[in-house]
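Narrative of activities, Objective 1.

The group set out to show that a structural description can be obtained from nothing but a protein's sequence at a throughput compatible with the screening campaign. Below is one input-output pair from the validation batch, recorded exactly as produced.
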Amino acid sequence: MPRTLSDIVGRLFPTTQTGSYPRPRWNAFDLGGEDIRVALRRADFAEAYADGVRAMIGDQVTSGIDVPTDGHLWYDRHEGLISSFLLYPAYHLDGIEVLPEPNPMMAVAGAASAAAFGATWNNVVVTGPVGRGTMHLAQLWGAANAVSPRPVKFCSGMGPANLGAWLTDRHYHDKAALYRDLADAYNAEFKDAVAAGVEIFQLDDVGFTLHAPEDYPLVVDTLNRALDGVDAFRIFHICHLGSGAPIGITPYAGFHELVAEELQVDAVEYAFAETGFPDDDFALWSRFPSDKGLGIGVIDIKRLVVETPEQIVAGVRKALDHVPPERIHLTTDCGQFALPRQIARGKLAAMAAAAEQLRSEIGS
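Output recorded for this entry:
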């Protein structure tokens, strides 16, 4: 029987969150394009980084979360937008540059909208062969695990297919070749992370939602290539896009069959909370039976209202018509970095309380 997150944690309905968490306000240390190993040689940065990660993990643990994440303190501050999700790999992979260029919106909106759009934007450009560069994801995970009271889940940040969709290619002129090299760079990072001790691994990649259906096989091949030989409990997370995307997008029907049957992972996380736990999205798990686990996004990261445990429990009950309880875990729809920290804590506590209620109803 395939292993589940419940097996690892030791109880039903284990709880976790997706990647990012609000950084403490006092922590103003942005990494930018600097190698994390170089930055950690500076005592002020090293102390602030360790204390910041410790605080972010502490919020999760004291809220009752079973599997914490490092919070992605390696993302720079960008006023709650998704840009750091893109900019970390853009700054740190070889062969990619972030270039200020004329904003293409200006041609559409006209000069009168310069104040709204800005005259320039940061275009992420492939200028040479893609390589690992200074990503050092294993070291980032290790720094977090060293200050955590319980094992930390590895969260990849933006995955290779997702990243590929954002890039302006001025080197390969061949999408398959570009995605192959992106996958290989990530695969080397992932294997190093497992060698460092990672047991629970999460790949964040909304690549399907950024590609046309004819490119879905390329997305699957890219993700499987990146995951090849990564010997850990592997979770694939895909949401309705990040904090700036409209509420209400439910893209799963278009690609769930591929995810269920061809993606080489142990569990899949889908966002459900922001769209009200649609019955049709849960029914996909009966239409395309799979032995994969289901991580249910039960926390809406686009609203400042803290969910009640009862709302969360009602949503999870819908899943139980299609997926057995031992294969279900609870998580957030996406990273919480755009939320006020006290709201994020409240949402995690509500999720933990809902999990306890579910265990009392169904058995632990």
